[in-house]
Amino acid sequence: MVQAYILVQTEVGKAAEVARQISEIDGVVSAEDVTGPYDVIVKAESSNVDDLGKLVVARVQSVEGITRTLTCPVVHL
Length: 77
Hints:
Elements: E1 2-10, H1 15-23, E2 28-33, E3 40-46, H2 49-60, E4 66-73
Antiparallel strand pairs: 1-3, 1-4, 2-3
């Protein structure tokens, strides 16, 4: 299982709606509104890195109101 945090920047005033829509996507564990340089932080899981990439590019980035994402895969050292 591959896990990642996806940091999301949104258009002004769109964070709550973006988080709600993202939280409904299969593979998303949680999507929370936050303050700071990012507007939403998403925790996602996938069976492998390729599927994680597809989740981010095909599903998460297609949500209306997102301007930028940064994907941070979890590593276990």
